[in-house]
From TrEMBL:
It comes from Streptomyces lycii. InterPro entries: EgtC-like, Ntn_hydrolases_N. Keywords: Glutamine amidotransferase. It comes from the Bacteria. This is Class II glutamine amidotransferase. Pfam families: GATase_4 (PF13230).
Length: 234
């Protein structure tokens, strides 16, 4: 399982990365899942005005390797960070570290386990559920995501998974998907939290008091797809 955080608007990158570190180390864990620490790698996608999207991935724990990434020097109005605890021991390492990428310019981050997503692609078996979920939810070459269609695809998955919480990013904008399977065993763990301040919106897997007091956060309604369009550049 994993932790996600997305920030859009006017923010300081060190504030958001510090929040991601807190979640990855279990400092803000207040949920119903025994997994507290997410140390099996991390990744980020951000937008640099005039340069487009940039991404970084590292198989080391975020707290140990953030300083060695480009993020501390980044200037951006959009940032998404993913910290990972691999569902399967065989799926550790850089190959499985998010963001997952594709030649059509999409980046993808997932928190959850959807072992039946391969069936939606007509495959014989699953090799890596998050990759299969990526290709199932965002068809190759897609110009964007339709919220109703995306949620319909998730509802149509055969039973066996728990959450489709995800961040999908391409050149024109980003989408945050909040969806959990019916009667999921750890609903609090998969609840997404939203913080809205003047000029800034943050969505995270947990309330992060370092960003704002708990009273300023609100749970994102289940079955939600948010769109964060990027400004067109000359």
């Amino acid at each position: 399982m994993c932790r996600l955080i997305l920030a859009s608007g006017d923010f300081a990158v060190p504030d958001i990365t510090a929040a991601a570190v807190d979640m990855s180390c279990g400092r803000t864990a207040d949920h119903d899942n025994p997994t507290k620490v997410h140390a099996h790698g991390w990744g980020a996608v951000w937008r640099e005005p005039g340069r487009g999207l940039r991404a970084h991935a590292d198989a080391r724990p975020l707290a140990d390797s953030l300083h060695a990434s480009p993020l501390p020097e980044a200037k951006t109005d959009f940032l998404a960070v993913h910290t990972r605890n691999a569902s399967l021991e065989s799926q550790r390492g850089l190959r499985f570290t998010h963001p997952l990428t594709r030649d059509d310019g999409w980046y993808f981050m997932h928190n959850g386990y959807l072992p039946t997503a391969y069936q939606g692609l007509g495959l014989a078996a699953s090799e890596f559920d998050s990759r299969e979920y990526f290709d199932y939810l965002v068809p190759d070459g897609a110009a964007g995501l339709d919220p109703a269609e995306a949620l319909g695809k998730l509802d149509a998955l055969p039973p066996g998974g728990n959450s489709g919480n995800a961040i999908a990013v391409h050149a024109a904008g980003a989408y945050l998907v909040h969806w959990s399977a019916p009667a999921v065993a750890t609903p609090v763990f998969f609840t997404m939290q939203r913080l809205r301040l003047p000029g800034l919106e943050v969505v995270a897997s947990e309330v992060v008091p370092g960003l704002a007091p708990a009273r300023q956060w609100e749970p994102l309604p289940a079955g939600t797809v948010l769109h964060f369009p990027f400004p067109k550049e000359a």
